[in-house]
User: What shape does this take?
Amino acid sequence: MQKEPYLKHTITIFLLGLAVIVLLNSCNSSKKEDKASSETEIQTLTKSPPKVPEADLPRYMAEGKKVYKQVCLTCHQANGGGVSGLNPPLAQSDNVLGDKNRMLEIIIKGSEAGLEDNRSEYANVMQGFGMLGDEEIANVASYIRNSFGNKAEPITVEEVTSFRSANKK
Amino acid sequence: MTVNAIIMFKTAHESFDLRPKLFFLLIAILAISACKEKQEKSEKAVVLNISPDNEGINVPDGFGVIKVADSLGAPRHIAVNSNGGIYLKLRKPIDGEGIIYLEDQDGDGIADAKKGFADYGGTGMYLDKNYLYASSDEEIFRYKLDASGEVTNTNAPDTLVDKLVSYRTHATKSFTMDGDGNIYVNIGAYSNACQETDRTLGSPGVMPCSILDSAGGIWQFRADKMKQSYAEGKRYATGLRNVVGLDWNFKLNKLVVTQHGRDQLNTLYPDLFDQKTSANLPAETMYVINEGDDAGWPYIYYDQFQNKKILSPEYGGDGKKTAGENAIDPIATFPAHMAPNDLLFYTGEQFPEEYKNGAFIAFHGSWNRAPEKQKGYMVAFVPFKNGEPSGEWQVFADGFAGLEEVSSPSEAEHRPTGLAQGPDGSLYVSDDAGGTLFRIVYGKK
Assistant: This one.
């Protein structure tokens, strides 16, 4: 019976300690994430296959912007914000920032059923742009993944080519 | 009751007690305060809380703007009852409520009571003396009103119409009524221009356009029959791509509608239409509809510069060839792509004489003008005399976008969507982008 207060203190101290450890850990992990996102190159080195150097990004951006203006802007708009209820936004879009193949599929095959994105629905059909060359697609996809506040790894010409050969009908 | 009973019981035995006096005093105080409350209520609407800067909305001299409510989600069409209570149809329900009812109990113009019901999203809303009518994308419901114009049985509406086609494109079912027990429903075409593959370069137009069987027109139903669908209804007019704005003109005793014209002439036919031409074509159109009318979609569009019905490129048109000899002509045209989302013939006494019986149109604002600047985030007015437009359309209220130039619609702060006239003749404007309800008043400043 006398031991109870002592036990209580021990538990409190133990819990406090645990909280501190958890906090420190979470601090650490968020630091790690920061590091990872700012130093993509390091991260990509550990991955296979090897990825594009970010140094190519300016070229993707310049060429991709031209394609964007030509075929994407009318619907997805100059700011990538889309049109509420009609055309999905590209800014902060799961379809854009997620799996590269998902994005390539939408660009190349279009979406007859309309798109759902970030839990909103959009009415307008998007036609496929498979008539564009691999390089144009790589450029515009990389441009979209790095515009309108987006930040994601570019998509290479090789990736477009291999997607196409893997998805031939 | 118990307290009263105890006091009563005690007073019988202790006549010298002060409690009976206290009891009567209490009743007197209650009576006086009730009186005071009644007096306050009768002083309603003395001072309207008009925004000093009209909420950034530009209106003609003498008009003022009140922000009735904000943070409403995406209110589409709206209706105001005889007590000034406001019903709003939400595009998507919030917390399971797709209709919002707002009241302004102290009369300052700003809503101070809000409740919601109806677990479906939609656009259409209409009010008559006995019922509130609202639409989902497949159905039309009605709710009985009590003597004060309020829906009491919110969970048990009658289903007047159901099983209407609803795909993603142009799915909303706007409607109006003629005061004679008929409902006129827009069933929008689920397509831009009836191509085999919608909005796709090189895809030809379907001939004849099969969509017109169940959409791309106005269907008429009865307001007193349950569970009607296509078989019980009547195709009242056809060849209308999507008319989000409908109102019955009681001067003409006819249906009047505003159509969203087709998109993407340049995207789909870059060899025939450059970007600038495509940004300015075709006209948004207003039609007077008689039973059996055909407005020509998808085979033609209206070119407001040539004042002609032009053969659509999907059907062999080149921007010059005319067609649609049997199709009706618009009674008014507006710049392309501005999206007329509601139409209201003004019958109130509050606004100056020139507005009487004229048409207010809520324009949602464009998207398909890009890369040109976007246009039309505003409320327009068309003066009418003897049931016909008596002058050009004019901007009545603009500045809803909140910025001088709009490049992309997502930049716009507000986008006008619904219109309603209050019992005092005020004009209410809903905004489905910013979720705000505005009330425009005249001569109250």
In short: Chain B touches chain A at residues 91, 168-171, 197-201, 264, 266-267, 367-368, 370-371, 407-411, 433 (CB under 8 Å). The longest strand of chain B covers residues 86-94. The CA atoms of residues 129 and 182 of chain B lie 15 Å apart. Confidence is low (pLDDT under 50) at residues 1-16, 34-43 of chain B.
